[in-house]
Design a protein that fits this description.
With about 200 residues, the chain is an alpha/beta fold. The protein is about 40% helix and about 15% strand.
Length: about 200
């Protein structure tokens, strides 16, 4: 069994398609929500929670093959009809569109990992379908390791980079300074104030 290669791709401003409007589709959409894609949802019945989600375009009707086109970043087949899901996967394959068939790895061209996401921090965990329980075990431990204000820390560190690059032109010294700042933030569990920052540069 070969492992799946983890790829991180920008979704902001891109468009995707979800076929299905029930609880399974909702779970996938909730995972995707922080990443900025605009997602069309096609199904005869669509949960109200889906219809009110930001960046979701609900379309209340049955799926048609003409709904597939190469502009989709990916397609998720999340209907309660396995034959319909397999047909969608086959048609996506013919059009070279990445497709995820929910709970059916054999018909997927990509899998959804177990996700830990806080702001710009994303960790995807996959066992290639061998043990979802193991993926969840690692996900829970990574979540427990990450400080509550990790997003604030990462955004603060990002904001410091231009000034530190200007103040410390030598690459190795700059990298060491950034490591010190990161370690101090993690120990504190929050961004540093000006005095704390100056003491580490």
């Amino acid at each position: 069994m070969k492992p799946y290669f983890p790829m991180f791709v920008p979704l902001e401003g891109r468009r995707a398609l979800v076929v299905g409007g029930g609880a399974v589709a909702l779970r996938k959409l909730e995972k995707l929500a922080p990443y900025g894609a605009t997602i069309r949802v096609i199904a005869p019945q669509i949960l109200p929670e889906i219809e009110t989600m930001q960046d979701v375009e609900p379309v209340r009707r049955a799926f048609q093959p003409s709904d597939l086109h190469e502009d989709w970043a990916f397609v998720i087949a999340a209907t309660d009809d396995s034959r319909a899901n397999h047909l969608i996967a086959e048609q996506c394959g013919c059009r070279h569109i990445p497709v995820n068939v929910v709970d059916d790895p054999a018909h997927c061209s990509f899998l959804f990992p177990a996700l830990v996401q806080r702001g710009p921090f994303s960790v995807g965990i996959s066992t290639g379908g061998a043990s979802p329980t193991a993926a969840i075990w690692f996900k829970e431990r990574i979540e427990a390791m990450a400080p509550e204000r990790l997003e604030d820390i990462l955004l603060w560190l990002h904001a410091q980079r231009p000034a530190i690059k200007a103040a410390i032109p030598e690459e190795q010294l700059r990298a060491a300074a950034l490591r010190r700042l990161f370690a101090a933030c993690m120990e504190k569990g929050a961004p540093l104030d000006d005095e704390e920052t100056e003491g580490l540069l």
